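Tip: read the tokens left to right.
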């Protein structure tokens, strides 16, 4: 397993324009010198592996992290993103990624391996973003329970909606160079224990950040922690609501059945 990976590139306007179009936001004015919104760095500095390096599930068979064994199924569990300062389009940036920790546990569906990966992004010689991601590898076989129906989001604002379907999932996978088959291959998702295509965890976390950003909540100098609590599958309306008052604003992502699929909290670092 590689201990560290480094990538450098100029932050071009096109990936941000593509993400804005996916979110039905205006694309005019996205150009060099513009500050990148929080979490939009996920469409930059991507690992672009050769096709021969991909496993049957679409993920690289080696790298940071690598699967702990053959047949292990990968799930994105959550993470924490600290925004030290904005990234600026049109300038080079460097991402350094390393494995922080691994831990083996016994779960309901068999052995689990938890891996935490840290990426630090620098621009102009200064730290801009610290991005920790928690990945879980589970044993083959078994199935994941669907999200239980819940009361649904409150009707009052703040609220943010996004209609999710196979087209949007395909475009988000393309923007993030994510070949994981659970997002586009219905035959494969049935083998993995899901009832339909899986909505990306990072997309749900991004929508939490967008709720904060669009309602004037400052993310700079603060850490956004998010957790995926249940699978969101199939075409539906994704809704984010939150309590934006106080020192630690919170938000929840709801699926169409009214269940919470992801949660987020904004807090001071440390």
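Filled-in amino acids:
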């Amino acid at each position: 397993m590689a201990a560290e990976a480094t990538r450098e590139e100029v932050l071009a306007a096109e990936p941000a324009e593509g993400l804005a179009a996916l979110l039905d936001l205006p694309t005019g004015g996205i150009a060099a010198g513009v500050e990148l919104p929080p979490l939009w760095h996920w469409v930059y500095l991507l690992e672009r592996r050769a096709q021969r390096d991909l496993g049957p599930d679409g993920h690289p068979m080696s790298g940071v992290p690598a699967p702990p064994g053959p047949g292990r199924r990968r799930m994105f569990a959550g993470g924490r993103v600290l925004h030290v300062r904005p990234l600026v389009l049109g300038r080079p940036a460097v991402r350094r990624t390393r494995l922080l920790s691994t831990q083996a546990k016994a779960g309901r569906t068999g052995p689990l391996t938890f891996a935490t990966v840290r990426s630090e992004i620098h621009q102009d010689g200064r730290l801009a973003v610290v991005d920790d991601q928690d990945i879980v590898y589970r044993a083959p076989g078994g199935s994941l329970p669907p999200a239980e129906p819940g009361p649904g989001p409150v009707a009052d604002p703040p609220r943010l909606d996004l209609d999710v379907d196979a087209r949007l999932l395909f475009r988000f996978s393309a923007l993030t160079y994510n070949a994981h088959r659970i997002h586009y291959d219905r035959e494969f998702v049935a083998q993995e224990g899901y009832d339909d295509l899986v909505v990306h965890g990072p997309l749900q976390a991004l929508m939490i950040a967008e709720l904060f950003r669009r309602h004037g909540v400052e993310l700079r100098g603060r850490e956004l922690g998010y957790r995926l609590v249940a699978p969101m599958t199939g075409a539906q309306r994704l809704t984010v609501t939150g309590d934006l008052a106080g020192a630690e604003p919170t938000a929840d992502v709801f699926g169409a059945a009214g269940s919470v699929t992801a949660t987020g909290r904004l807090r001071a670092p440390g």
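The longest strand covers residues 92-107. The CA atoms of residues 83 and 220 lie 5 Å apart.
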